[in-house]
Amino acid sequence: SVKVETKPATPGAPTLASPSNGSTIIEGDAITLSWNSAANASEYYGEISGGPALLFFDWQSGTSKYIGAQWPGYVYSWKVKARNGSGESGYNDAWTFTVIPITPTNVIATSLSCTSVKVTWTDSSASEDGYKVYRDGQEIGTVPAGGTSVTDQGADAVKTYTYTVKAYRNGIFSNAGSASATTPECPVHPPQSPVIIEPSYGK
What we know:
The protein is mainly beta.
């Protein structure tokens, strides 16, 4: 008799599961990639691109991979393929996730005068390019990396403003920290008393 060895069919590409496509992840948060098993697959291989360097994980039997925290300011793309003794699948359609800087904390807005407000915050990010500061949604200042304050010299008297601060890196922004302040009335200076100049006679 002839013994016929039947090989399993080549697996199809696995479907991705988490993080969901287009996700936003905060700087410092650990990331685990996961996907659904493909029929007939025995192992999986994956690539993560878009960051400072191309990352990959070698063939493994499990359907998840811990990659830890990734640099903020990048949109990452990841994809996975499967294989068995008959061959490899192609990659699935890649998904993306964006890692954004940590939100500035302890934002405080303090009126210094009727026309100026000082905004301070804690530098919470470890790798920002700088900070953008907004008054009621309008940008009023850019502060370099490590900066923790800006003074708004263009405020109006007796008005409440909301200030927001965002960290950014590579054009990718954190969520906003915010605080409000109300400017006081400007002081009214009494008019000066008139100076009477006596006429000079005979001149």
